[in-house]
Amino acid sequence: MNSVWWASEDFWRKMAVWLTAVMTVVLILLTFDTVKQITAGSERVPAYSAINHRIYYRFDSSRNMQVPVIGDSAPLFGTSLSEEDAEALVSKGKLTTQAKNCMNCHTLLGNGAYYAPDLTKAWLDPAWGSEAAREQLMVNFLLDPHTNARGYGTGRKMPNLGITEEEAHGVVAFLKWMSTIDTNGFPRNFTPISQEGDR
Questions:
Q1: Distances in Å between the alpha carbon of 128 and those of 58, 59, 140?
Q2: Domain tally, the chain
Q3: Is residue 1 part of a domain?
Q4: 197 lies in some domain
Q5: 163 and 93 belong to one structural domain
Q6: Residue 26 structural domain
Q7: Do 180 and 70 form a contact (C-beta atoms < 8 A)?
Q8: Coil vs helix vs strand at 23
């Protein structure tokens, strides 16, 4: 008995092979495009030297969300860094957050745990008080979280992770740079620290 062509086992085997091959090519192309989009220095992920500038958020009515703005010069810790030095400092902070397993309690770009505050826009968190005091408050907190605890009424406190001053500066640089990334409004309902130029 002859079956119709579309019910043939051989036809569907060939279709599966061709479809797998085509989708593999599509996946490779999408991977290259994604890497281009998420590389530092792209439209949505600014260069590391952005830490030499004031970072604030402005409401974009066309997108109906807050978007990051890289403003006037405001060097981190009072020192303007070259792109290479900025990358080294931000990388030091990123490696420190990985080594200290910060995502065991915190989230970054939506990944991690929800026990402690999200760190994606921690640089702009109003809990740090004024713009002028923020850098040193963050460093002090990282060096001695018990004395400089911020529990926000939850009773949760960060343990002392033995972070060095160099590592603390790196983490602060990493968090400042993270705040420059256009995350399409994530996390939602975030109210950034009030600072000059953000209106």
A1: 19, 21, 11
A2: 2
A3: no
A4: no
A5: yes
A6: 7-38
A7: yes
A8: helix
Alpha-carbon span 29 to 160, nearest angstrom = 44
| Domain presence at residue 191 | no
Residue 199 located in a structural domain = no
pLDDT in the model for residue 147: 87
199 falls in which pLDDT band (50, 70, 90)?
Answer: very low
What's the pLDDT tens digit per position in 50-74? 999 999 888 899 999 888 999 999 9
Residue 196 confidence (pLDDT): 56
Where do the DSSP E strands lie in the chain? 53-60, 65-73, 107-108, 111-112
Average pLDDT over residues 169-189: 92
C-alpha angle with apex 34: 85 to 113, nearest 5 degrees?
Answer: 75
Q: Which amino acid is at 174?
A: F
Which H or E element spans position 64? none
- Spatial distance between the Cα atoms of 38 and 34, rounded to a whole number of angstroms: 6
